[in-house]
Design goal:
Structural class: mainly alpha
Order of helices and strands: HHHHEHHHHEEHHHHHEHHHHHHH
Strand content: under 5%
Number of helices: 20
Radius of gyration: 23 Å
Distance between the termini: 103 Å
Largest sheet: 2 strands, antiparallel
Number of strands: 4
């Protein structure tokens, strides 16, 4: 009689133990495909972010490397610690504020600006482990948050138009660029192409547009008679991290100008905080991996990752690092675990070796991405309650002042103060939460210091 044997279960492999791939209804091949899809959807940041931040006087090549390193760090932490299919990279909006508002308009040295980003990340990290996180979400006026998002979106779009020459200042005032200029025509073609790709829900629409217009730029001559897209000196080269972007902080100057830089530091924190919250909720819901009570799985690790990524990013010369909503593309492709993020991080690392190609991309190729990304930031407008003056007028005031004057801080200050005044006039005291009153006090002090410094 044969001895009865029992079949032992095959021990789960390392990937299954680490990422619970089967438990979440996915496969390794599906996670890899999702990672490729997510990277394709957000890889434009390797081009757009350095192009924007270089306006602050920083080396373009160094910023390309810094963008790749910061994206790798943030995405790997999210993947390995929170096990979520969400990729991180320097956020659009914060990079524009960093370069064009803080450094160029306010005259703040980039070392101090990076210190502001670091402090914003520290605040995010601290609040991620306390109950104050939920209190801020519920007590901050939605109209102000949406006004900020839309104002920055329009400003990003404006930069794209100006950089490509579609908006011209040749006459001393803003006007439409000359249609006889081949560079303007190329930029307009790029805008139309990008819009069509987005309408068709084409994967990696922004990346495809950048590549097509960059190739087209090689056959279009600029004002100096040279092609808009010069021939690359090399196709691939080892990335060398720039020393000036490692720990680029100036705490002394930050402290010396504390009250002037505090409002924008809070902006870096709040924009990252609300952006991360919205993205985490959206992506985990679409992936079907939310907890039964509707909460985000490993929420504390996920929030901490965002804060830590911003601090780490600032240490390597990056603006605010945040969750990218483009991660939804990977989720649609089947991504359910952190393995998706590991693939994205590896691809960011490989992309850094192609910095010679990225440096030749002309502004006409990045402009359509900036314009369309900026316009897509208007998605929150339907959430504004236009039946209530305090909601509609405060958000519109932020948008109007920012776009007309390019002074985002003054637009934000007037939007917040007008909200408080209208709410108080109606006797709606419950809406005047602690965070609203604190921000009002800070903005009043900022306006006073700004006025006295101009005398």
């Amino acid at each position: 009689m044969l001895e009865k044997t029992t079949i032992q279960p095959v021990p789960a492999g390392f990937l299954e133990k680490k990422f619970e791939i089967c438990k979440r209804g996915s496969t390794v091949s599906r996670e890899v495909l999702a990672g490729l899809t997510t990277f394709g959807a957000m890889s434009y940041i390797m081009v757009a972010n350095p192009a924007i931040v270089s306006a602050a006087g920083l080396d373009l090549r160094g910023l390309i490397i810094a963008t790749a390193v910061a994206s790798m760090i943030g995405t790997l932490i999210m993947a390995l610690w929170a096990n979520l299919p969400i990729a991180l990279a320097p956020g659009m909006g914060s990079n524009v504020i960093f370069a064009n508002i803080v450094v160029l308009k306010m005259g703040v040295p980039y070392q101090t600006a990076f210190t502001m980003v670091l402090i914003g990340g520290i605040l995010f990290t601290i609040l991620s482990v306390t109950r104050l996180r939920g209190m801020i979400v519920t007590s901050f006026p939605a109209s102000i948050r949406i006004g900020i998002q839309c104002a920055i979106g329009l400003f990003v779009a404006y930069l794209g138009l100006a950089n490509a020459g579609v908006v011209s200042y040749a006459s001393g005032r803003p006007s439409f660029g000359h249609l006889s200029d081949p560079a303007v025509l190329l930029a307009l073609a790029g805008i139309m192409l990008t819009a069509v790709l987005i309408a068709l829900k084409t994967p990696a629409a922004f990346l495809i547009s950048i590549i097509v217009i960059t190739i087209g730029g090689h056959f279009v001559l600029g004002v100096n008679g040279a092609p808009l897209t010069p021939a690359p000196t090399a196709w691939i080269s080892a990335p060398i991290f720039p020393a000036e972007l490692f720990m680029p902080f100036d705490f002394g100057n930050f402290i010396a100008n504390f009250w002037l830089v505090l409002p924008i530091t809070l902006y870096f924190f709040l924009s990252d905080f609300f952006g991360a919250t919205a993205t985490l909720i959206s992506i985990t819901h679409r992936a079907g991996i939310m907890n039964e009570d509707g909460s985000i799985p490993k929420a504390r690790q996920a929030y901490l990752t965002d804060g830590i990524a911003t601090m780490a990013g600032a240490c390597v010369g990056s603006t605010t690092v945040t969750n990218f909503v483009e991660s939804a593309a990977g989720v649609e492709a089947g991504g359910r675990t952190g393995l998706t993020g590991v693939v994205v991080a590896v691809l960011f690392g490989l992309a850094a070796f192609f910095w010679p190609l990225i440096t030749i991309i002309p502004p006409q190729a990045t402009a359509p991405t900036l314009i369309l990304v900026g316009l897509l930031m208007f998605e929150g407008v339907p959430e504004i309650d236009f039946q209530k003056a305090e909601n509609a007028l405060s958000s519109i005031l932020i948008i109007l002042i920012t776009v007309v004057t390019t002074d985002f801080m003054m637009g934000l200050a007037l939007g917040c103060l007008s909200y408080t005044i209208m709410v108080a006039a109606q006797g709606k005291w419950a809406k005047l939460t602690a965070i609203v009153l604190v921000l009002d006090a800070i903005f009043l002090l900022y306006m006073y210091l700004t006025a006295t410094s101009m005398q």
